[in-house]
Amino acid sequence: MPPEKPPEKRRIQHTDEQKKRLRQYYNNPAPGGKKPSQGDAVLWAKSQLGIDIDQSTVSRWASDKFLRLDAPLVAHSNLSRSTDRRRARERAFDVLELALYEWVKKMEDKISISGELLRIKASYLFNRLPMYKDVEEPQWSRGWINNWQNIYGVWKRKKHGELASANAINCDEEIESIQEILRQYLTADIYNCDETGLFYRALPDASLSTKEVPGHKVRKERLTAMHTVSAAGERMRIWYISKSENPRCFKHVNLKALNMEYRFNKKV
Prior knowledge:
By secondary structure, the chain is of the alpha+beta class.
């Protein structure tokens, strides 16, 4: 009889706050004090944080891989570390980068943050921080934004979502039947029509953030849009359907001059 396999260890997710506190204990000993060993850090984590980790985990958490967790210390201590650690290069806009990070931390639970919004906020901060008064404003390129995200650990995360799957269906016979019917008509006489919903009050379901952010209830207000196009490529006017007979946004607007058709239905 083969020996029983030992039960698999359950993987425990540790928080950034736990990693940050251990980094502060291990990498920043008291002035004149001795730097703790990895074994000391293991015992400290168990007593102070209530977690069981090994020395390899201490080494990994204390490495530059998690340098982003020291972000609030960047502008004040310039990442002072023991002599055996690499010193971070001084960055040209470290104060602005830290201010931008703090703004993301403050707003990530309230709004959806995009790369474009980061560029706008960076420009706003640059023009209001006195130390950059005589400095030419940079372009805030995509590369600068990506580099800032890598340093501060700000990634695009979905707030909420649903997983769905569809069963594969063998529809070869149906396709052949439809193609047989279509052969009887000119391409200009074959139209495809489909509708879609525009949830115009729904916020994006993903945002740049420093942590997992809970989502909000999705606003259900919607417009129904119906698109029609022929096999020859001719596009028909788009039909929009809503509940209001005379929407306020159409006041003083000549609907006939718009490239659309509008209809209303109370049950849409």
